[in-house]
Amino acid sequence: MCNVWEAVVSGMGWVVRDGCLVDFWYDEWLASLGPLAPFYKRSGRPASCPVISFVSDGYWDVQRLDEVLPEVCIQQIIAVYPPSPLLGHDRLGWRNDKRSIFTVKSAYNSLVSNQPMEGANVWKMIWRLPVPQRIRAFIWLAFRGSLLTNKERTRRHMADDPGCSLCGHVCEDELHVLRDCVISRGLWRQVVDGNVYHNFYTTPLHDWLYMNLVGNGIVARIMDNWNIFFAILCWKIWQRRNRMIFDPDVVENEDMLRACLCYMNEVVGARTTLSAMVGPPSVVRRGEGSDWKCPPATWVKLNVDGAVNTTTKAAAIGGVCRTDGGDWLFGFNRRLGCCSVLNAELWAVLEGLRHAWRCGFHRVEIESDSREAVDCVVAGSRVRTANALVIVIEEYLKRDWEVAVKCVGRESNAVADWFAKKARDNELGEWFYETPPMEVQLLLENDQHQR
Ligand SMILES: [Zn+2]
């Protein structure tokens, strides 16, 4: 255990509850982003402060967040349940498990996939980049600082001047070549979003590569597949630079950005074609409980669902409440920001309970098609590191009413799914439907026929 302790520690992350202990800027409390300091919009380093200081009257202070962080970060933050003293103290959790529970299995899995020690999960992240192997290898070398820059060549006694041969800068290292040298800088300037400009140019090498390559890329939103584009452009910058230096007779007139875009589309297109060829799974599970059923007499039934865009992580939730005769009571939906599928499903349960409680129902059967979310709700706060949503849901369940939580098949959750997807086109915030929208009538009738 001693040998791997460091890796175990690097797998720890914060579970924010009251937001008093965790540092907003320097602790890692948003697994998808890492510490927020590199995203600080203003110049200099932000002063330490607890997460709770960005909450006002129980809600995230979006205006204040907007002053210091780019939109991409804010989208992730507002999908986190705002810290509150009612939730208990902040805790350490285990990041390699979705429910933050430490298990030997998840620790082992994270260790074996992590062999090179340079920062948690970097190797895995690079290895998973959907780009040709030679570009992955190039990115890996850049990450390790092993590209043959003049700095490295001097270190290996292959050259005696570490300076940049194109612009004369004193030290030609990875960051200089890929980002800061005149030509590279001019290229990035054309594609990097103005909001993240400052971070983009001030972040150290490892963070810089990480924030552009992880997931869809944090600097993303400029375009889909930013991480792929970023990797390709880095690689092309390096290649062209070598040609210019070692073969000065070659005239470079290729439009780099256009070439990168074409290459990216080729890479993405190749993947799309592949999955189109494989096609959707041919077996559709239609087991028991695939049809919507009325709740027992005197109960109401609440179907809830979360929808997360796999590329942007933009999340939305929705739900519908019906009587024991299958008649309409209300519908709701809400666009959340960006979060994991599990968190979206938990948000859906919470919002459903909130509306049902507000409407004064005493017996509520709540159905979700997420096995994982239902398991989390049932396990509740017995799981020491359960996330804040689970704690708040549990608080609702303890109130003076009867609530049954069930997992059902997707088919019987179609109406809730419709509301969740519908919310993705809405503004941020929540919507309540006292009468059913026209477009959902057919789905409602379908459920009525099956009950
Ligand atoms: Zn230079």
From TrEMBL:
SUPFAM superfamilies reported in the protein's UniProt record: Ribonuclease H-like
CDD domains registered for this protein in UniProt: RNase_H_like
TM regions (residue ranges): none
Domain Reverse transcriptase zinc-binding: 102-188
InterPro entries documented for this protein: RNase_H-like, RNase_H-like_dom_plant, RNaseH-like_sf, RNaseH_domain, RNaseH_sf, RVT-Znf
Residues in RNase H type-1 domain copies: 303-423
Top-rank taxon: Eukaryota
Record GO terms (molecular function): nucleic acid binding; RNA-DNA hybrid ribonuclease activity
Record-given protein name: Uncharacterized protein
Organism expressing this protein natively: Hibiscus trionum
